[in-house]
């Protein structure tokens, strides 16, 4: 498994949004969707605002592959479900710290159980 460079981690984590384009079963990419991204240590995480109903999330979960773009960085990536409660708690904290200024209308759904259940670790291919 490839790791993020320190520069990639910083630039992606500091960007307000990430554009995610999950792969279809035939390998072609779906249209990109802007989503929030957070960092925990040397890892990047994303969640679906709509929980398991999010179209991009369903696609990413089905193929586990896709492409991301943020702050001039373009990478093919792998999506892995994150189920560790301690990691999910830190990801909650990261969402609160980074996106709390958007207020509860947008933040609360991202730290609710239905979104927690969609936490994906994003790693470069």
Number of domains: 1
Structural class label: alpha+beta
Task: Please count the helical segments.
Answer: 5
- Unreliable residue stretches: none
Shape: globular
Cα(first) to Cα(last) distance is 7 Å
> Quick check: average pLDDT?
96
Give the biggest beta sheet: 7 strands, antiparallel
Give the full name of the CATH homologous superfamily.
Electron Transport, Fmn-binding Protein, Chain A
- How helical, in percent, are the residues? 25-40%
Q: In what range is the share of β-strand residues?
A: 25-35%
Spatial sequence of strands, sheet with the most strands: 2-1-5-6-7-4-3
Q: What top-tier CATH class fits best?
A: Mainly Beta
Strand tally is 7
CATH topology: Pnp Oxidase, Chain A
Return the string of H and E elements.
Answer: HEEEEHEEHHHE
> Over all CA atoms, what is the radius of gyration?
13 Å
CATH architecture: Roll
Question: What can you see in these coordinates?
Answer:
There is one protein chain. This protein is an alpha+beta fold and 125 residues long. The protein has one domain (6-124): Electron Transport, Fmn-binding Protein, Chain A (Pnp Oxidase, Chain A), CATH 2.30.110. It has helices at 6-14, 55-63, 85-99, 104-110, 113-116, and strands spanning 18-22, 33-35, 37-40, 43-46, 65-70, 73-81, 120-124. A seven-stranded antiparallel β-sheet has the order 2-1-5-6-7-4-3. The chain is globular. The chain starts with 5 loop residues before the first helix and ends with a strand. The model has no long low-confidence stretch (mean pLDDT 96).
């Amino acid at each position: 498994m490839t790791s993020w460079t320190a520069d990639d981690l910083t630039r992606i984590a500091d960007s307000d949004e990430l554009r995610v384009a999950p792969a279809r079963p035939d390998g072609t990419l779906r249209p990109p969707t802007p989503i929030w991204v957070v960092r925990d240590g040397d890892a990047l995480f994303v969640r679906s605002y709509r929980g398991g109903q999010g179209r991009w999330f369903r696609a990413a979960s089905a193929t586990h592959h896709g492409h991301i773009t943020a702050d001039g960085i373009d990478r093919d990536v792998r999506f892995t479900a994150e189920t560790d409660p301690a990691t999910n708690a830190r990801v909650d904290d990261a969402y609160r710290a980074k996106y709390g200024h958007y207020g509860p209308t947008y933040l609360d759904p991202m730290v609710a159980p239905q979104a927690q259940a969609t936490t994906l670790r994003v790693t470069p291919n």
